[in-house]
What we know:
Blueprint: E1 17-21, H1 26-36, E2 41-46, H2 53-63, E3 68-71, H3 78-84, E4 90-93, H4 100-105, H5 107-126, E5 133-139, E6 151-154, E7 157-160, H6 177-197, E8 200-206, E9 208-210, H7 222-232, E10 236-239, E11 245-250, H8 251-263, H9 265-268, E12 272-275, E13 282-284, H10 285-296, E14 302-305, E15 314-315, H11 320-326, H12 334-347
Parallel strand pairs: 1-2, 1-4, 2-3, 4-5, 5-8, 8-12, 9-11, 10-14, 11-15
Antiparallel strand pairs: 6-7, 11-13
Helix pairs in contact: 1-2, 1-8, 3-5, 5-6, 7-10, 7-12
Bound molecules: nicotinamide-adenine-dinucleotide (NAD).
Amino acid sequence: MIAKGHDLNQRTWPLMKVLIIGGAGFIGVNSADYFLSRGHEVAILDNFSRAGSRRNAAWLAEKYRSISIEHVDVRTDLEVLRARVRGVALVIHEAGQVAVTTSVLDPRSDFEINALGTFNVLEALRQNNEGQVLMYASTNKVYGGLEHLGVVERNGRYEFDALSDGVPETEPLDFYSPYGCSKGAADQYVHDYARIFGLRTIVFRQSCIYGPHQFGLEDQGWVAWFSIRASLGQPITIYGDGKQIRDVLYVEDLAEAYARAYERIQITAGKIYNLGGGPKNTLSLLELVDLLGRRYRREQRVAFSDWRPGDQRVFVANINKAQEDFGWEPATRAAQGIEALATWIDANRGMFGQG
Ligand SMILES: NC(=O)c1ccc[n+]([C@@H]2O[C@H](COP(=O)([O-])OP(=O)(O)OC[C@H]3O[C@@H](n4cnc5c(N)ncnc54)[C@H](O)[C@@H]3O)[C@@H](O)[C@H]2O)c1
């Protein structure tokens, strides 16, 4: 357990029902754990298409007898979605196709899961609007390649030339890749359903999230992927030169942001927020390799390959709006969070192909 700068348990709101769609995924399972451990009732829906999602669900079921876990596909199971949103205070929608590379290989599936799936969730709520709060896990990819923002190289890492607080929510949208388009369409639908139909929705444009229960792959979840490979003593391929910078956010801090945004729903309803590690929690790919090499006391083997489509040289979220509206900022420094992730991976090496 990581020490926090604020008390996570001092909540004033009553116990409530939380529905997490995509709840067996990485962010879903950690969010479920967050709310269950504070006494709330949680139900999760998932189609278990993500590798590791069944293990995550089993871990939750073992830890919390009260949890309800159901197989649901957001593309097709409209009746079930309509029924499950009833009587719920908070719906957190995390279900998604999550890799840019996969979206390029199969754009139709990507569209159906991310755009149509989110539309189905919105329609389920519109037809059963009891004032539920809907949170949508959008992405910083909606801002596109950001080539117009000057990027400089300093001390072996890229940085924005003149944007020290990072990219704000007012940055123009520029969907890039089918994933960017499907997530971006969903982002705008969720935002608009607040304006047109009065749904209480919040869009979170998330940066790189990392932490325990993340079954990182080469195509998605790079912090976890690098950490798994380092734990197993296996090589890593870096696409690009490794100097690209991301702001990284520990998953428990993300769940804390969801909780705080819910608490301040009078202010946050209908809004869009960037959620990331912000300027204080940035990491280049090479810096993570170095950190892991020191932790495991061996030189990490690395190969380099071409940049991937849509890869931003720098992304750092400006998180001031979240700070101002609901008093949130990341409590976990990158080095602490990566230690927690690596500890979880080491304890579960068997799941990653080594006992
Ligand atoms: N992890 C990150 O760094 C990050 C960053 C920005 C945005 N996001 C968004 O946050 C959400 C959660 O990400 P994650 O990292 O937990 O991913 P994840 O893949 O671990 O979780 C997604 C879950 O959705 C489920 N799912 C996929 N298709 C489904 C369908 N058709 N019906 C029902 N369930 C389905 C999967 O089985 C999985 O359990 C995604 O929408 C992703 O785009 C994640």
